[in-house]
Please model this.
Amino acid sequence: MSEKKDFYEKAKKQMRLSERILAEIPGFRGYKEKELRRESDRLIRNHLYRKLSEAKSDLKDVFQKLSDRRLFEVLTGMDRLVAKFDRVAEKVNHASYGYAGFFNVVKVEEENLDRMIDFDNRLIDDVEKIVSEVKAFKTEVIKQEFGKAKERIQHLVETLEAFEETFDKRGEVILGVS
Model:
């Protein structure tokens, strides 16, 4: 089940009275709207990061169990998979969130911020798929079913690479080029 929510609308509803009053001032309104969009996007990315980190933790448990069983033929692949999870999770954690400096030539407009939020919302489904595949792999290993370990590792590598490739297109969405 997807935990997808409209973070922007939720953040808008939770504004304090003083923020709502200030949001009615014409110059401040646009600023506050952009801030809410950026904050919503940050919440989505934090959710993605937490889920990927949980999956990485599960993979470390799997790695330990495979190591305890001395299944050396899959340990190198597992080590690379855990490292890839770490790298991708950190990429999500430290991704840009739609700021452009005052004097920057390219400005980040509200509609691009909205597209960025939609883009990140779609990534939730991808991460949920990855998390469920990791959990299924962990369940197999706990049951000591090691026959498909090599295939599971390869499939997770491919799935994570596809997610990373999609995530890398995020910068184009922020700038409105994509």
Observations:
- The helical segments are 7-13, 17-23, 26-68, 72-93, 110-142, 149-168, 170-175.
- The CA atoms of residues 29 and 104 lie 21 Å apart.
- Residues 7-175 form one domain.
- The radius of gyration is 20 Å.
